[in-house]
Write a structure and sequence with these properties.
Elements: E1 11-15, E2 25-26, E3 29-30, E4 32-36, H1 41-60, H2 70-83, E5 85-89, H3 101-110, H4 115-125
Helix pairs in contact: 2-3
């Protein structure tokens, strides 16, 4: 068997749900986020950054494990998710004004009232099956 036939693709589309679990649509079009997956270089870069943060925290705390304050953790999550987000489809965020790309993505992920989006993205990227070629989410 040629195992490369089972390789994943770099990106997939997550169809967002609202806080109640209902799929979101805008003018009949699905509201989706295009995300880099666990087999991609941007994803690997985020994992490296997360590891480096953890090591730095331990070094700063005399080798003991320490947890960053909630506000810091939320900001880091928003930054990390923005770094692996390719695009928003049929989603606007007026508080961001004219922001586009990573600055827009980061503002959405940092909004505590939209935390249900963060949870969906975090869950989505842990499932390699979402990034298989030809899957329904691609």
């Amino acid at each position: 068997m040629d195992i490369t036939q089972t390789a994943v693709v770099d990106t997939a589309k997550l169809h967002l749900k609202d806080a109640a679990g209902d799929f979101l649509y805008s003018d009949g079009k699905p509201v989706r986020i295009v995300i880099y997956g666990p087999g991609s270089k941007p994803f690997a870069a985020v994992e490296d950054r997360q590891t480096n943060r953890a090591i730095k925290r331990m070094q700063d705390n005399d080798g003991k494990v320490s947890v960053a304050p909630q506000e810091t953790r939320n900001a880091e999550v928003a930054e990390d998710l923005a770094a692996i987000t390719v695009d928003f489809e049929n989603l606007t965020y007026p508080p961001a004004g004219d922001a586009r790309g990573a600055p827009l993505f980061q503002q959405v992920y940092a909004d505590p009232k939209l935390g249900f989006i963060v949870k969906q993205v975090q869950k989505f990227i842990t499932d390699w099956g979402n990034f298989k070629p030809g899957s329904a989410t691609n």
